[in-house]
Amino acid sequence: MRKMIQKIVMIGAGNLATQLSLALHEHGIEILQVYSRTAESAKELAGKLDCPFTTSVRKIEKNADLYVFAVSDRALQEILDKWSVPIGNSVHTAGSIPADIFENYAENYGVFYPLQTFSKERKVDFSDIPVCLESDNFKLRTDLIELAGQISKSVHLINSEQRKQLHLAAVFTCNFTNHMYSIGQKLLAEKNVDYELLKPLILETAQKALQLDPVSAQTGPAVRFDEEIMNSHEKALKDSPVFQKLYRFVSESIYKMHKGK
Amino acid sequence: MRKMIQKIVMIGAGNLATQLSLALHEHGIEILQVYSRTAESAKELAGKLDCPFTTSVRKIEKNADLYVFAVSDRALQEILDKWSVPIGNSVHTAGSIPADIFENYAENYGVFYPLQTFSKERKVDFSDIPVCLESDNFKLRTDLIELAGQISKSVHLINSEQRKQLHLAAVFTCNFTNHMYSIGQKLLAEKNVDYELLKPLILETAQKALQLDPVSAQTGPAVRFDEEIMNSHEKALKDSPVFQKLYRFVSESIYKMHKGK
């Protein structure tokens, strides 16, 4: 079957742009060109994809089937403002930006939001990553579903409000969780205990949340309101007032959630 | 080689007692008897181990090589107070209780602290679980190392201060992390988005922290101080004041950690 979207220009060369364009490239989608404001990252990604790159918005190829804007929220508006001609089919990959940011710039537009944490140095398997799509245009929406289905088994039509909530939930689930790991690591370093010891716990906690409902799987001093332990932990954090405050707050939040408040 | 600790009495029948005694049993250590205050849980575990149980401290077998106290911190002292004769070799499994709680009760004592989150319904592979040991008694310490080495590849001598810090780090890394998952789930439910969508992110965030340093792997609006997104997220949480406060606090903590404060 002929692919509806065959040639893509990738706007951006960061973590997500890198992983997404590599996944598309591996599935036979041609990345026509990479644009990035910085020559170094544009060149690096273009090298991996064996395609041309540019750092000038005016030199972006005009004949792509799709323009994927995988840039920071701030950069997105800046790049759009530099565009002199109407853009073809366009999507962005942002969690919290409405699709209609493209309204005065592109005729057909939408959102292609892969819900995952990306690093340049860590290759991810796109096939499990939920891709959340949105477009008011029937033809583009259909084409995006086909495109996403080539790289992922998990394709979802999600409206802007739901996507924004997904982004918020992802901040708790990924960014805040990672900060908890960081605090754990820092606490152990203070007493010369190897961070390695925490790793089986990190993995099991995550795996448990894939199998059991996390609310009912909650363990620890806060959920059983073990004041003695909690007081002793807060005391142990007296030299780290930020962590101490955080300890109290998260414990209170756990307790309240389980009291059904 | 003759095992130095061959016969164990398990005091407790909760999540940890269950998983630990099953692992010991599988490695040829005899669980002589299970004690629990509630007949139901004692019977359930004894059934799995095919051994007798008791709910009376006075009826606990006297000839075990080791008494493992895998009970809540509060229950530990209560059970010790009921003991009428000196106890043989004794260990507890608690993160934040010093070894010398046994001082007036047992001649030789120590700590056998497996650093993991346990549920009765989820079987864990003990071989990867760090077992943190402590004992002032050379003979018992050696025997505990041998015992732990039979069920785990990760055996560590850890003093009480380090163990307490490990417990604190584990609260952040496991209990607080699980609460972040719970919040993510609740936020999605509000907008009728399936919790399934978060699962690949939960797993990847954990796996990333096993490979990369979590501090340098931190992503999200807080670490790049993206005020626009953070304000929009806080606004979105206006009907959940506890989560809103938590959002602000964790974001501040992330930002401060990365500013090196």
From TrEMBL, chains A, B:
<protein>
    <recommendedName>
        <fullName>NADP oxidoreductase</fullName>
    </recommendedName>
</protein>
<feature type="domain" description="DUF2520">
    <location>
        <begin position="129"/>
        <end position="253"/>
    </location>
</feature>
<dbReference type="InterPro" id="IPR008927">
    <property type="entry name" value="6-PGluconate_DH-like_C_sf"/>
</dbReference>
<dbReference type="Pfam" id="PF03807">
    <property type="entry name" value="F420_oxidored"/>
</dbReference>
<dbReference type="InterPro" id="IPR037108">
    <property type="entry name" value="TM1727-like_C_sf"/>
</dbReference>
<dbReference type="InterPro" id="IPR018931">
    <property type="entry name" value="DUF2520"/>
</dbReference>
<dbReference type="InterPro" id="IPR036291">
    <property type="entry name" value="NAD(P)-bd_dom_sf"/>
</dbReference>
<dbReference type="Pfam" id="PF10728">
    <property type="entry name" value="DUF2520"/>
</dbReference>
<feature type="domain" description="Pyrroline-5-carboxylate reductase catalytic N-terminal">
    <location>
        <begin position="7"/>
        <end position="83"/>
    </location>
</feature>
<dbReference type="InterPro" id="IPR028939">
    <property type="entry name" value="P5C_Rdtase_cat_N"/>
</dbReference>
